[in-house]
Amino acid sequence: MRKFILFSVFIGCIGLPVCLGKTVETSTVPATTKAVDKIVVLRLDGKITEAPPSVDLGISELQLNLFWDLLRMIRMAKNDPEVGALVVLIDEPELSLAQCQQLGMELAKLRASGKKVFVHTDSITTAMYLLALPADRIGMSPGSMLLVNGIAANVFYYKNLMDKLGIEADVEHFGDFKLAAEPFTSSQPSKYMDEQMNDLLDSLFSQVIQAIVQSRKMTQAEAEEVIDRGPFVAEQAVQERLIDQAVHRQDMLKEIRRTLGGQLVYNYGRGKIPDIKSDWSGLMQIFGMIGSKGTKDGQDKVAIVYVTGMVVEGETQELFDSAQTAGSRTMRKAFAEIMKNDRIKAVVVRINSPGGSATASEIIWDLIRQVPEKKPVIISMGTVAGSGGYYIASAGSYIFASPATLTGSIGVVTGKPVLTKMMDKINVNHKTYTRGRNATLFDLFHPLTDEQRAMLHDQMQVVFDQFKDRVMMGRKDKIRNIDDLATGRVYTGEQGLSLGLVDGVGTLADAVEMAANRAKITSYDVVHLPKPKTLVELLLEGMGYRVDPEQVLAGGRLLSGLSSEQKMLMLVASGVDSSLIGETLILAKLFKGGHVLMVAPYHIELW
User: Fold this and answer.
1) 204, 387, 453, 552: which could join 600 in a potential S-S bond, CB 3.0 to 4.6 Å?
2) pLDDT band at 283 (very low <50, low <70, confident <90, very high)
3) Which contiguous run of DSSP H or E holds residue 120?
4) Which CATH architecture has domain 301-431+441-523+584-606?
5) Which residue from 404, 510, 400, 376 is spatially nearest to 71, judged by alpha carbons?
6) In contact, 66 and 575? CB cutoff 8 Å
7) 467-481 residue pLDDT tens
8) CB neighbours of 71 closer than 8 A, spacing ≥ 6?
9) 0.85 cut: is pTM over it?
10) Across-strand partners of 211?
11) Can you point out the beta strands (E) in 339-420?
12) Pairing of strands 301-308, 525-529
């Protein structure tokens, strides 16, 4: 999956697959003094989402592949006396470095409780390797590749291309390191970009090195030297002490069972996956399940509120390639549910956002602040919680981050593309008719005048000062001088901890546990907000009706009385918006609308 937020920065490892046949292992699975009842097998594969989908089909039999569920299952196994070991099978899951770190933290806690942890994988990347490092034993298929050979970042600059196209970026920003627009205004990195990128890579590379040092019993010099000689075939990785076995999966599982006893449990903590037929009748089978999902009530709850994607005014939208926005109107509905539902005792706000609209960020910040003190609000940062994402996070009473989370970016930026020269190049003439001195302020065919630029500068100063004020309201005892941090600079979670931007390194499960403890509840369910829309709501909205989400909760009951054919017709009638676009175009739309933006300039992937 690729996301582009103005520009993309990729951190990666490149290697060629090589096939070798020999099996190598340094030792067998360690023996235990007592047989176990259950050996939980956790398979990590495919698309793993942070937030539930925006549409609820109401089918209880279908299982979501949520990141929260992975953390929950590891915690459940840790606390289950019948579970003696956990086997993690890594099969190319879509996980970021920060997510891998959080899963690794949970595996380390399980191992610290006295239970065994095993990992098996085929070829593996740097991020997945960090996930595997806390295990007692790491096995890889013979001939597979350990793609751990350093990190690299590419920053792409588009100004020369834009000059050829006749497009000019007319941009203003506050903060020397507020670099979101630099690739469109320059043809090469500024000294600030060089400093920023080198600083980020130093932090991320140090995290990789330290993880290897701690888990593989190497010195720092040894870890750095072995990475410089990477990548490695599995058999070589055994000799380099980076993994423990080059072994086929079925052989490793057999050895674990032989040594530990017990049964392998594959769907631990989850219901049985339905057997869906592969022909046309399977589709009818699915539609027959719609509306079958029930709701549990009566128990205390911790709500996880997901702020995922670009922060925008209006409704949350789910876009192609899993891009998503976090809409302020949708968040209002989510927090209205928190305020009125007495069963919700605590809140965790999970942020995976580079920011976006300053107005929407302020709205969501205020919603968090309005939650009564008796319902504690804890923040959990995911892959990125920068700029507007950090603005929102500062409203919480405690902030967790992963070491590799990208956060900070306290600054603002605004501007627009000017297309006049492009129209000249393609021989399109135009004339603009105006009333009012600043009618062309956001027009794409007129550059900013000096007066307009000064006016925007004054408006940006107001928003920038408000940004700093909001941060200090929540962090006044932890940040000494906000002006030192309000340069637009991006920090890793590890750096943010020492600067007072975050309070602790921890997982989403840690945040839920802290929220429950502060609310003084021990038995609770976890609910996910915002609530997804039902098929009934989608259908009515598509037909032009105004829909009150509170009145649509009966939609599942209505659907349960329909036949499979009727449900299928309703789904088709609801339609799919073919004009949905990705984050880059959302950002372009925000710029065009004249918004003052709080956007972090980086999207970093490590693979």
Assistant:
1) 387
2) low
3) strand 116-121
4) Alpha-Beta Complex (3.90)
5) 510
6) no
7) 999 999 999 989 999
8) 102, 103, 106, 507, 508, 509
9) no
10) none
11) 344-353, 355-357, 377-386, 398-401, 406-408, 412-418
12) parallel
